[in-house]
């Protein structure tokens, strides 16, 4: 996996915090929660997309694809929130919660599996050197 530089890492963490605060406060009806969530989701997804994988391990590439889908679903959740707030489109109910739940499951799953697979790949390469 490509490492993010210091500024990108700060944007990534700030995006995650804004995303969390925006999603948690959206239930209260606070209008600015949507904007916090949207900025956070866009920053989080952008930095996650920048941290690509250049290797040839099929499992990690598959997990990376799932991670990208999760990041895009976080941004789609912002669109569903906008449809609910501004009363347009087809998603005027709680569809955003379902989209957010699917995104969270994908993000959480890949957050644990990718480092484990990278460690396996690293140990395999170390064993092949001898």
Automatic annotation (TrEMBL):
Instruction: Say which species the protein is native to.
Output: Paraprevotella clara
The protein's superkingdom reads Bacteria
Protein name listed in UniProt: Uncharacterized protein
């Amino acid at each position: 996996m490509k490492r993010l530089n210091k500024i990108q890492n700060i944007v990534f963490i700030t995006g995650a915090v804004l995303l969390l605060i925006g999603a948690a406060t959206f239930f209260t009806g606070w209008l600015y929660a949507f904007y916090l969530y949207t900025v956070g989701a866009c920053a989080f997804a952008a930095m996650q997309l920048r941290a690509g994988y250049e290797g040839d391990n099929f499992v990690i590439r598959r997990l990376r694809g799932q991670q990208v889908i999760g990041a895009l679903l976080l941004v789609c959740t912002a669109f569903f929130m906008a449809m609910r707030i501004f009363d347009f489109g087809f998603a005027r109910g709680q569809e955003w919660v379902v989209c957010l739940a699917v995104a969270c499951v994908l993000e959480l799953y890949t957050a644990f599996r990718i480092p484990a697979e990278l460690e396996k790949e690293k140990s395999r390469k170390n064993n092949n050197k001898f």
